[in-house]
């Protein structure tokens, strides 16, 4: 049959619901916020800049987020699960022994903390020290994010998590060590001592994972 005789579908495209349009606008604003934080930093990220990047009116932005602090916290809340999903995907094929698995898990964690969007999010936590409104907004986001991280750690190391009562404390130690080194080196030349720190962190974690509870 010739293409000229193919039936033509004259049905108009399905119109999006009001909720779908709202969700789409919200997602564009959150993505634009992360992009602004990465490119401009916290100090130069304004609601006007975010609205322009998202191609949304300034007034529409405030219909979704009543304050800049609420916008920034929501952007971080949207970003964290994406980064965790990426981390889990990169750890799909891990060694069987937990002592060997921890080395790859820490190495991947280090690379995740080098990502510019995560460093931009951490910059918000530093800024919150002198911004009470931002601190209040982030205080709602952080606890569930931290619980999510511990849940992922237990999925990656179930045998250790069940056997060692100090497992969660070890997870906190690893997270804080890697995060601290990443933040400390964000605005400085690469620090060769960081590689040694990671090697020592792996060694300490291996001993903790292999030692009896």
Task: Characterise the protein shown here.
By secondary structure, this protein is mainly α. It has two domains: about 50 residues, Orthogonal Bundle (Arc Repressor Mutant, subunit A), CATH 1.10.10; about 140 residues, Tetracycline Repressor, domain 2 (Orthogonal Bundle), CATH 1.10.357. Helices cover about 75% and strands about 0% of the residues. Helix 1 packs across helix 4 and helix 4 runs antiparallel to helix 6.
What's the layout of helices and strands?
Blueprint: H1 18-40, H2 47-54, H3 58-64, H4 68-90, H5 98-113, H6 116-127, H7 132-156, H8 158-163, H9 167-184, H10 193-210
Helix pairs in contact: 1-2, 1-4, 1-6, 4-6, 4-7, 5-9, 5-10, 9-10
Name its key features.
213 residues; mainly alpha; Arc Repressor Mutant, subunit A; Tetracycline Repressor, domain 2; 2 domains; 10 helices; TetR family transcriptional regulator
**Can you write the helix and strand succession as a string?**
HHHHHHHHHH
CATH class of the largest domain: Mainly Alpha
Structural class: mainly alpha
- The pLDDT mean sits at 88
**What is the CATH architecture descriptor of the largest domain?**
Orthogonal Bundle
According to CATH, what is the topology of the largest domain?
Answer: Tetracycline Repressor, domain 2
Q: Care to give the gist of this entry?
A:
By secondary structure, this protein is an all-alpha fold. The protein has 2 domains: 51 residues, Orthogonal Bundle (Arc Repressor Mutant, subunit A), CATH 1.10.10.60; 139 residues, Tetracycline Repressor, domain 2. It has 10 helices and no strands.
């Amino acid at each position: 049959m010739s293409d000229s005789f193919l039936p033509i579908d004259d049905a108009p495209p399905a119109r999006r619901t009001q909720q779908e349009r709202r969700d789409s606008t919200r997602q564009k604003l959150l993505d634009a916020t992360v992009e602004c934080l990465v490119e401009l930093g916290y100090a130069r990220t304004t609601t006007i800049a975010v609205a322009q990047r998202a191609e949304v009116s300034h007034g529409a932005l405030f219909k979704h987020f009543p304050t800049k602090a609420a916008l920034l916290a929501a952007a971080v809340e949207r970003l964290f699960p994406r980064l965790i999903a990426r981390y889990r995907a990169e750890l799909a094929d891990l060694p069987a022994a937990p002592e060997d698995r921890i080395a790859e898990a820490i190495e991947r964690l280090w690379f995740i903390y080098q990502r510019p969007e995560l460093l931009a999010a951490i910059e918000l936590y530093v800024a919150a020290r002198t911004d009470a409104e931002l601190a209040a907004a982030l205080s709602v986001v952080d606890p569930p994010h931290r619980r999510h991280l511990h849940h992922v750690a237990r999925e990656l190391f179930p045998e250790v998590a069940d056997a060692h009562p100090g497992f969660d404390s070890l997870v906190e130690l690893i997270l804080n060590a890697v995060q601290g080194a990443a933040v400390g080196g964000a605005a400085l030349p690469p620090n060769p001592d960081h590689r040694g720190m990671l090697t020592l962190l792996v060694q300490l974690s291996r001993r903790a994972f292999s030692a009896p509870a």
